[in-house]
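RETRY 2/3 - previous attempt timed out on the joint model. Re-submitting the same 871-residue input unchanged.
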Amino acid sequence: MALNSLGREIPDSFAGKKLLPYADPWSLQPHAERSTRAIRRLTHNGSKLVGGLRDAIIASGLKDGMTISTHHSLRNGDSLLNDLVREIDALGIRDIKIASSSVHVVHAELIPYIRKGVITGLECGVNGPIGELISKGELDCPVVVRSHGGRARALICGEVPVDVAFLAAPCCDEYGNFNGYYGPSACGSLGYAQVDAQHAHKVVAVTDNLVPFPAVPVGIPQTVVDFVAQVASLGDPKKIVSSTTRITTDPIGLQIAKYAAMVIRASGYVQDGFSFQTGTGGISLAVAEHVRDMMRQGKVKGSFGGGGITGYFVDMLEEGLFEALFDVQCFDLKAVESIGRNRRHQEMTAGTYANPFNCGSVVNRLDCAILSATEIDVDFNVNVNTESMGYLLHNTGGHCDVAAGAKLAIVVAPAIRGRLPIVRDAVTTVTTPGETVGVVVTERGIAVNDRLPELKAELIRMRAPVKDIRQLRDEIYAITGVPRPIEFTDKVVGLIEYRDGSIIDVVRQVRQ
Amino acid sequence: MKIQRKGQAGTMQSSDLMVIVEPADGLVIEIESTVKKQFEHLIRARLEQVLAKHGAEGARISVNDRGALDYAIEARLETALRRAGGLS
Amino acid sequence: MIADLIAPADIDAARTLIEACGLAFQPGYDDLVGVHEQGSLVAVGARAGRVLKMLAIAPAQRGGPLLGEIVSALVARGIEAGFDALFVFTKPAYAAAFEALNFTLLAAREQAVLLEFGNGLKHWLAAHSDGQHPGRNGALMIDGLTFSASHRRLIESAAGRVDHLYLFATAEDCRQQMADGVRDLINVVVLDLAQYRIDTASFPTYFLKVSDPVEKIRTELDATLFATRIAPFFGIARYFTGTADDAAARAIQAQGIAVCAISTPPPGDSQ
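RETRY 2/3 succeeded.
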C-alpha cells in the first residue's frame, strides 16, 4: 500500500500488475516506444470475407487467455460484443479479457459469461450492472477504468495489448475498407475504433452492410484489416443514435446553465478563435445555447467545437460560429448525417482527441469545457465513476482528459440530488483531480478554484453568486444533513487509472 | 393519539416519499430509501420527532423514500397521520 | 397530472401507446391511468388487484418523472383498495427502473421478473415465523379447493419422510379445511400461500410475445419465487410432487432443493 498525492491508498499491485500511484497531472514522462505488431503481406486480391462471427473468431486465432476489443460508437444499441462473447463461449474459449473502448448497460448480458470464466478481466470501464455486481463482490472480474485518452495511450504504448479487435463496421467492403457514415447501423465517427485498427494484433471488420468495393469515404483502410465478417445486424439503430439529447427544462438546470454562461463570459475566452466542448446532458446543451447567443451578439468567429458531437454543434458550425468540429463520436443522427458530407466536420481518433502521450492532443487546444459530476469535494476533485451507494456505475469518458487540456474546465451539477449533497468533504472516488478543475457551478452558487484569482475577481465584479467551496458545502449540508459514509471492505475490485497510467484511485468492495 | 385506520400521503417521485400509516401494536417504523445507507438515521430521527410531537401510538409507519428532505418527510407524515385519524 | 382513462377514445390511445412500447394491451383491470402532455397520452399504467401492469412511457419521455408518477398513483389506489403490497411482473430489462422506485426484486428468470412494492413478503414470513422448525423439512403444494381422503394419504406418506412437512394451500381460503384434515399429524404445518403463488389468474402476459411459452415462463417464475424466497425460511430441503420432471421441478431443483416424486398410496396402505 502507498498513498498517492491525493491521499488515496493504492495497493502495490492489482491483478498481477505493478501499480504507479498518481502524483500530479503533468510531470509523468513516457519512456516507451510505440507498440508494434507483426507486418504482414497479403498477396491475394480477393475477398477477406470469412463468413460469420464464429468463422472470424476461428480465423483470427483467438485462444484462451487473450484480449479482445470492440468500439462503443453503437453505444446502448450495440449487439456485437454480446454476440461475440456468446460465440467465444460456444467455441469453448476461456479466460478472455475485454479491452473495449467502453461497456454499456446493454452488455449486462455478459454477466453469465463472467461467472462462467469465459471473461476474466475488464481492461476498460463499465456503465451499469456489471460494475454494480463487481462492487458488491457478487462478480469476480478485475476492472481497470480508463479515460478515452488514457485508453488510447494504453493501446499505443502497448500497456494493453489487444490480440483481436472486432470492429463494428457500418459500411464496409469485402477487402476491409469501412466507414461509419452509412447503413442501418450508421454511427458517424469511428474515432475510438481507429486506435484499435492501428494497434490490435489482428483486426476483424464486422459488418451488417457489405457494399461493393470500395467503401468510400474510407474511414479505416483495407491495409490494417485482416478479415471481414458478415452479421445480420450490429445492433438496434434506435439506441445507437439517441435523439433524447435535449435542452433541460428543469428550472434548477436552467439556473445552473445561466451561471455557467456567466463564468464563460467572465473568462474572456469568447472572442475570435474560441474553442468549446460540452457533453450531451441537458444542462450542457443549455449552456451551449447561451454560448451561441454570446457568440452571435459578439460576432465571434470561433475555432472549433470538440469531443462527442451533437446536432447542436452541427448547427453552430453551419451558422459559421465555428471553423470546424473535431468529432470523436456522434451523439445523434444530425451529427452522423453532417460528418458524412461536411469536410469541416472532422473525424478524429481517440488518440488525437485526448492521448496525453503524443505531440499534443485536441483537448490541449480547448478554451472552455463543460463537465458533469456525481460528487465534488472541497479540493475540487470530481467523481463521475461511483454512485451514491458506492457502486461503480459509470465510465470516465473524456472527463479527466478534457479537464487537464482545457484552459477552463467548468463542472456543472445540481447542489443536491435526491437528498445527496453533491459538494461534500470527500468524494467516494476521484476521477479527475481538482488541480485541473477551474470552476464548480451549482444553482446555489459558483465556486472558483484558488488558482484562478482573476476569474474570481471578475465574477465578483459581475455580481455573480461566488462562494467559497467550503461555504457552498456547508449551505448544502444544512439542507440535506451530513451523510453517513458508505462502508467499504479492504478488497480492491477495480482501478481508476489517470490518463497518464498512474493510479488516481481504486474501487473497493462495498460492505453489504 | 390513536391511529384508527389506514392513511397514506406522498408519491414515489424523486425527492419525495410515500408514507403509509396503519393501526398496529406498538409503534413500528419501516424505512425503504434510495439513500438508506447515508441517511436512514436522519430519516428515522425526523419521523420519530414528528410522531413524538403528536404522541402517535399503535401504528405501523411504512416509508418509501426517494431522497426527500426533512421538511417533505414532516409534511408527508403529518398528512398521513391526519388521514389515519391520528390527528385532528 | 394523472387522469383516469375511461372513455373509449382514451382507452384506444392507451392501447396504441402500450403497443408502441412493444407490450400488449390486456383487458381486465381495476384502474387504468395516464398522463397527457400537450394533448397526447405520454404515459399509461393499469392495476388489476395487487398487480400493476401495462406500464408504458413514450420513448421521448423516458428517464423522467413519468414512471414515478404513474406508479405512485397506482400504488396509492392499490393500498386504498386494501392491499399491503403490490406486484409488478415485467421484462428483466425494466427491473432496475422499478428498483429505483424502491420495489424489491422477488424472483428473476430470463424472460420475466417479479418485483414487489412494500414489505409484503417480509411481513408474510414474519407472520409465519412461529411455523419455523429446525430439521430436514419438506414441502407439498395442495392446489385443490377441497380436501379428500387421497390428499390425506399423500400427506401421510410425505410426512413420514421428513422432520416437518409444510403444506402450502395455494388456492384462496382453503387453508382452514386443510388444517382440520391434518390436525392429528403433529409434524405437519399448513400455510396459506395464495398471495405468493403466481397462478394463471394473477400472472399478466402483457410483456410477453404471443409466441412465448407463457405457461413455462409462469411456472418457472413461480417455482423460483418459492425456492429462493420461501423455502429457505422454513428449512425446506425436499419438495414433493407428482410430476418430478416438469419446468417447475427443474427450477426448484436448480436451487438445491431435492425434488421427490410421490404418488398417492392406495387406501389401506400405511406408508
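Residues 124-261 of chain C form a domain with the Rossmann fold fold (CATH 3.40.50.620). Closing ticket.
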